[in-house]
Structure formats: C-alpha cells, structure tokens
Amino acid sequence: MDNTERIYQYLEEEWTERTHIPSYREIAEACDLGVTTVVYHLDKLEGQGRIIREANKARAIRLTPEVHEADETTEQVYQFICDAIAAGQIPSQQEIATGCYLARVTVRRHLALLEGQGRIIVGDGMRGLRLVQK
C-alpha cells in the first residue's frame, strides 16, 4: 500500500473509531512520515476528491465521497504545462508560477490536484513533470 492510501486509511480509522481528525503531525507520526510528505499526500487526496481541507484551520480535514472537478486555475496550470511540453520544454514550478501569475505555493497545490486526477506525474527534480498519456 502506498503512502497516500495509508494516510487515507488512517484518517478513516480515526474518524470511524474516535470521530476525531488528527493533526498533520499526528498523521506523520502514525504513518512514520515527515509532515511535508503528509501535506503532499493530503494534496493528492484532495485532488482525487477524497478529502476536503479548509485553509487556516486546525484539524480541518473532511472525508468526502464526492469527486471535485478542477477549477479554472487548475485548468490554466494544466494548459500551461501542455503548451510548454508541446514546445519542447518541461516547465519548473517557478516558470509555471510566473507564466500563470500565481504564487509557487498555489502552483504546488494545483500540481498535486492534477496528479491526484491522474493527468500529470510530478517526478523528481525541478523539471520532473510528465503528462499522463490517455
């Protein structure tokens, strides 16, 4: 089982058994991961529509059966990536941020959403983006 699934199962167990959503740090400890890694996998789960998070609130993760559609910004980021790859370039997060007039943190969130939707693969390194061929 991959880390994304381990985290999701842990969230389900905590909610079912205790009606309690753990903090990022508690998730990290329970799954033997770093907090940054937990955030990455929560981004993926949110991109898949399996959870919803509210910004600036502690323990604000909700499990949801609904699948959420990409918004305009997600589509803008995806189109920028497609255009760059079609032109023979693999864009960095900074180049996407500059080209789409977004903050890098916003770009990272939308990349995680796109990866969660199975549209891209975020590989290692600054230029590790790949489109998923359908």
Report what the structure shows.
It contains 6 helices and 4 strands. Helix 3 (35-47) crosses helix 6 and helix 4 (72-86) crosses helix 6 (104-116). The mean pLDDT is 85. It has helices spanning 3-18, 24-31, 35-47, 72-86, 93-100, 104-116; strands spanning 51-53, 61-63, 120-122, 129-131. The chain has 2 domains: 3-63, Arc Repressor Mutant, subunit A (Orthogonal Bundle); 72-131, Winged helix-like DNA-binding domain superfamily/Winged helix DNA-binding domain (Arc Repressor Mutant, subunit A, Orthogonal Bundle). The chain is elongated, with a radius of gyration of 16 Å. The chain has 134 residues and is mainly alpha-helical. Helices cover 54% and strands 9% of the residues.
CATH hierarchy class name of the largest domain: Mainly Alpha
CATH architecture group name of the largest domain: Orthogonal Bundle
Number of domains: 2
Q: Count of DSSP E strands?
A: 4
Low-confidence stretches: none
**Helical coverage, percent range:** 40-55%
Oligomer: single chain
Note the main sheet. 2 strands, antiparallel
Task: State the separation between the terminal residues, measured CA to CA.
Answer: 24 Å
Dominant shape:
elongated
Return the average pLDDT rounded to an integer.
85
User: What order do the SSEs take from the amino end to the carboxyl end, as H and E?
Assistant: HHHEEHHHEE
